[in-house]
Amino acid sequence: MSVPQRPHRPVVRDPGVLEGLGGASDPIAELHAAHESAATLVHAGRAAGDPAVTARLVALVDEIGLATVADLWAARPARSLPGALWRLYLLREWMRTDPAGVAREYAAGVRFAEPDHVVAGVEPPGPDEVRRVADAILRGVFRGDLAVALERAAAFCQVVASGRGDLARGVPDLDRAGRLQQVARDLTACARLWRSGALH
């Protein structure tokens, strides 16, 4: 099977700013496509048990582009399987595209969110570690406990939000920190839903 040519990377948006991405022309068809594609991706990845398959799923955005993933999942509720996957892929893209900036905010937030830092597992909090954790979180979706992967991403968001708040230079930075905290709350809720069999 030939691998499609890698598309140009779109501009990466901060994962705290999710509004306005993805569009709906047929709401019912899009709803089914979003939920079915998310469930298929997760279940196929978990059933494969093949590191090569996992690596391709982790790098999905690299292959098909962030805009395609946004079209599929961005419009779904935050506390749904496609909504959770969208946030995880967006986080990975952000962490890989601006690892130095993310690492700076993460390092600033560690002293305010030590328990979350332990769960997130970015040690030491540098750009290389941020990139490594970005992939590790998504590998956990397909090869580990999905709830743990969601909780790890939520903890990461909490630490970065704390750092962003500490480094804030004005209201817009504080607003972005607040939106990132909301992403963390949504991912934590998704972890609970997954454990109860209610994340669809």
Structural classification? mainly alpha
- The 3D shape can be described as globular
Task: Output mean pLDDT.
Answer: 89
Radius of gyration: 16 Å
Number of helices: 10
Model description:
The chain is mainly α. It has one domain (about 25-195). Helices cover about 70% and strands about 0% of the residues. It has ten helices and no strands. It has helices spanning about 25-50, 50-60, 60-65, 65-75, 80-95, 100-110, 115-120, 125-145, 145-165, 170-195. Helix 7 (about 115-120) packs across helix 9 (about 145-165) and helix 8 (about 125-145) packs antiparallel against helix 9. It is globular, with a radius of gyration of 16 Å. Mean pLDDT is about 90; it is low at about 1-10.
Which key phrases capture this entry?
disordered N terminus; globular; single chain; mainly alpha; 10 helices
What would you say about this model in short?
With 200 residues, this protein is mainly α. The chain is 71% helix and 0% strand.
List the helices and strands and how they pair.
Elements: H1 27-48, H2 51-58, H3 60-64, H4 66-73, H5 81-97, H6 99-109, H7 114-120, H8 127-143, H9 146-167, H10 171-195
